[in-house]
Amino acid sequence: RKYLAVTRRLQDEYMLEPAGSHGVWGLDDYSFLPFLWGASQLCPPETFSSTAANPAAASSASDSDAEKNNDTSATVGAAIAPDRMADLALGAELDALSEEFLYAAALRFIKQVKKGRFGEHSPMLLDISRVAGGWTKINAGLVKMYKAEVWAKRVVVQHIVFGTLFP
């Protein structure tokens, strides 16, 4: 969070312009990861559990195991549907949620730096909020988008040394 606060302040203070911006058809001209990590934070716990990857283990998991996992992020993620999160971009409740949830903090930053109606300056975020399947499906889509828009772009990763792992 502190890193994002520092980078956002530098961007604002020195009016830095993003390289390779997609304009309104991008998530945020500067940062993608807060949306990805934020969507992950709002996914139900079983999305990332070992039982999700292994159906046999899932069938043998007991109810007491589920009770032990008292993850408030996932509980709130289930309560805050993605379409409601986009609605919150217009209200004060977003400020309170942004203290705990990266996705809300990323939306709050967009709200602070962009003017006009949310659907006009951030149509992609509005479209994401309407994805059926909730945070799990949104997270999977953001992972695919990150791979395509960041890791698959030679211009973006050209200075990272991968050795034989990256052509």
Automatic annotation (TrEMBL):
Top-tier EC class: isomerase
Q: Does the keyword Isomerase apply?
A: yes
Enzyme Commission identifier(s): 5.2.1.8
Of the GO CC terms on this record, one is:
protein phosphatase type 2A complex
Q: Subcellular location, in the record's words?
A: Cytoplasm
Q: Name the InterPro entries on file.
A: Phstyr_phstse_ac, PTPA_C_lid, PTPA_sf
| Membrane-crossing segments per the record | none
User: Which GO molecular-function terms appear in the entry?
Assistant: peptidyl-prolyl cis-trans isomerase activity; protein tyrosine phosphatase activator activity
Q: Does the keyword Repeat apply?
A: no
Catalyzed chemical reaction(s):
[protein]-peptidylproline (omega=180) = [protein]-peptidylproline (omega=0)
Keywords of the record, alphabetical order, are: Cytoplasm, Isomerase, Rotamase
Task: Write down the PANTHER family for this protein, in alphabetical order.
Answer: SERINE/THREONINE-PROTEIN PHOSPHATASE 2A REGULATORY SUBUNIT B (PTHR10012), SERINE_THREONINE-PROTEIN PHOSPHATASE 2A ACTIVATOR (PTHR10012:SF0)
Q: What does this protein do?
A: PPIases accelerate the folding of proteins. It catalyzes the cis-trans isomerization of proline imidic peptide bonds in oligopeptides.
Q: Which family does it belong to?
A: Belongs to the PTPA-type PPIase family.
Q: What is this protein called?
A: Serine/threonine-protein phosphatase 2A activator
Identify the species of origin.
Erythrolobus madagascarensis
